[in-house]
Design a protein that fits this description.
InterPro entries: Polyketide_cyclase/dehydratase, START-like_dom_sf. By secondary structure, the chain is α+β, with helices and mostly antiparallel strands. The protein is built from 3 helices and 7 strands; from the N terminus they run βααββββββα.
Length: about 150
């Protein structure tokens, strides 16, 4: 059963500062508890990750996923290339400057291969959405403060 959700958060940083945190794929396990490990497999000419391999643990399942990123000055999105427990995953961060802050909208669509009870799937998705927004905000602010 495919599920999707979106969530917004206001972060006291520029889009570039926020995208730098998202692009630091290797550090993702430091601020996102679902990520067990993360490594960049290839990069674009500007140094941003193109493909990454991640080990993620959620809803009692552990999966190794390879994703491909697309970057702009105000967005980051990724599409699932391969996984064992998930058929499809698409996600997008859209950043909109708002004065000295940035409005961050995160959208996620996931289609797990393994049948899960609806309440577990919804709870797992909610936790992932909170980490992708509130967890990202905390990490950005932590790095800004040094």
């Amino acid at each position: 059963m495919a599920v999707s959700d979106s969530r917004e958060v206001l972060i006291e940083a520029t889009p570039a500062e926020i995208l730098d945190v998202i692009a630091d794929v290797e550090a993702t396990p430091d601020w996102s508890p679902q990520y067990q490990s993360s490594e960049v497999l290839s990069r674009y000419d500007d140094g941003r990750p193109r493909e990454a391999k991640m080990v993620i643990k959620a809803a009692g399942l552990t999966d190794t996923m390879v994703i491909e990123y697309t970057w702009t000055d105000t967005s980051c999105s990724w599409t699932l290339k391969s996984a064992t427990q998930v058929r499809a995953q698409d996600a997008t961060y859209t950043l909109t400057p708002a004065g000295d802050k940035t409005k961050v909208r995160f959208e996620l669509a996931v289609d797990p291969k393994v049948p899960l009870p609806g309440f577990i799937l919804k709870r797992t998705l909610k936790g992932g959405m909170e980490t992708a927004t509130d967890g990202l905000r905390k990490q950005v602010l932590k790095l800004k403060k040094g």
